[in-house]
Write a structure and sequence with these properties.
261 residues; alpha/beta; two-stranded antiparallel sheet
């Protein structure tokens, strides 16, 4: 007899399973915990893009709000070929939890457009980004006091510049804070110096603190301190849905099924 592992949950289901595992260690009403677990709003739509060659392409786009417990919501916008509804909801949920752990008073959000930015010209990405911004802004989904996007995978300061320029065109005359629509803007538009390297610098500081931990160094037979040590940098890209399903899961998520030969 051989053992077959059933298909594992998708990304959103994985996040919710971990949430359920964590709630075993807290006291609270089940209905409130269920409210915390689920995204409170999801906006999905299609962007009609006129390509440089004159053809029309419909592009899938999303924005998810996980929690309004503290406003505004905060979360990146990613451009990737595997962006979908469950991914943005999962990432929005994780944003809420990360904000809570860091004691930052924002709710979690995440957005994305389903495309490979390497296959589109700069002019096409400009048009896509502006249509995405207009669609969200007109529905009241984004705004300095509502939901503040940021760069994520496949986007950068230029993307944020397009977004804030579009929003300023629509609402700049009656919203004094309109330039605060996004973070991660270019410095001339009010961006913060050091934002680009902040993530990598955070990894360095975290690693330095880790190597000052006596029990960690003892466990792996290492000397304390980062000086003189060699590091391996593993570059991580967004996994495909199939790869995500191979990721490590709580034991409750993986059930085995016996099958006769």
């Amino acid at each position: 007899m051989d053992t077959k592992i059933e298909e594992e949950p998708n990304f959103l289901q994985q996040v919710q399973l971990y949430f359920d595992e964590a709630t075993k260690y807290v006291s609270g009403r089940k209905d409130i915990l269920e409210l915390i677990k689920r995204c409170q709003a999801l906006f999905s739509f299609n962007i009609p893009l006129k390509r440089d060659d004159g053809s029309i392409e419909l592009i899938e786009a999303h924005r998810a709000h996980h929690s309004y417990h503290s406003m505004p919501c905060k979360g990146g916008v990613r451009y990737a070929p595997d962006v979908d509804v469950q991914e943005v909801q999962a990432l929005a949920s994780l944003m809420t939890f990360k904000m809570a752990v860091a004691d930052i008073p924002f709710g979690g959000a995440k957005g994305g457009i389903r495309l490979d930015p390497r296959k589109y010209s700069k002019a096409e990405l400009d048009r896509i980004t502006r249509r995405y911004t207009i669609a969200l802004a007109k529905k009241g989904i984004i705004g300095p006091a509502i939901d503040v996007p940021a760069p994520d995978m496949g986007t950068n300061a230029q993307t944020m510049a397009w977004m804030v320029d579009t929003y300023n065109t629509l609402y700049g005359t009656r919203d004094i804070n309109s330039s605060a629509l996004v973070t991660g803007k270019p410095l001339p538009l009010g961006g913060i110096d050091g934002r680009t390297e902040a993530t990598g610098l955070g990894v360095f500081y975290g690693t330095r603190v880790l190597f000052e931990n006596e029990s960690f160094c003892k466990k792996y037979s290492l000397t304390k301190g980062i000086k003189g040590k060699s590091m391996i940098c593993l570059l991580y890209t967004s996994p495909s849905p199939r790869d995500r399903q191979k990721s490590r899961m709580p034991s409750s998520a993986c059930k085995k099924k016996k099958k006769k030969k």
